[in-house]
Amino acid sequence: MAPVFSHGDLRLYLLNLLDESPRHGYDLMQALSDRTGGTYTPSAGTIYPRLAKLEEEGLVTKTVDGRKTVYEITDAGRAEVAARAGDLEGIEAGLADSVRLIADEVRGSVREAMKSLRADLAAAAQTDRVTSESHARTATAAEDATRADSREQLRRAEALVGEFRANVRADLRTHLAHGGTLAASVVDDLSRTLDDAARALTRALRG
User: Of the four listed, 142, 148, 150, 177, which is most buried by Cβ atoms within 10 Å?
Assistant: First the structure.
């Protein structure tokens, strides 16, 4: 997945945010998350060293307000923002492209995971149905074997669902930890697909 900000762009974008209004560190992190649609949420370890560098360069100043440190752009910082207005337009355009690409990647990953889940559930349901029909024509011993096999298939299906849940959860958490986002539309797609899979499984079991 491509980075949201290219080298040096984050520094300029921080100056641009401070040109809008003074902000404390957490406010800057939240603003970056908001401006990127939640696809990029920087850590304190990313933001504060850059703010310290901007302060060293005389582009921002900081004041302590209670327990918060508020950063404010200087005249020199405003001059740099004005001089690099064209660069800022390019950054904004790049952010829009990055948000679209990341959202497409998340939707694609969820769709692939849903396809795999539907196939696994359908296979488990088909195996359970065929086994049950075959053993239903046998004696009591065979019926007992069928019930045992059905319980095994149930454990298998539960294991498949559990593995899918764990994999999707890990993928999404890793995506978010790397600065990604999870749009409401993606979750809506996930909900609809799971509902479809559940209905398909119900029809297969009743068939």
Answer: 150
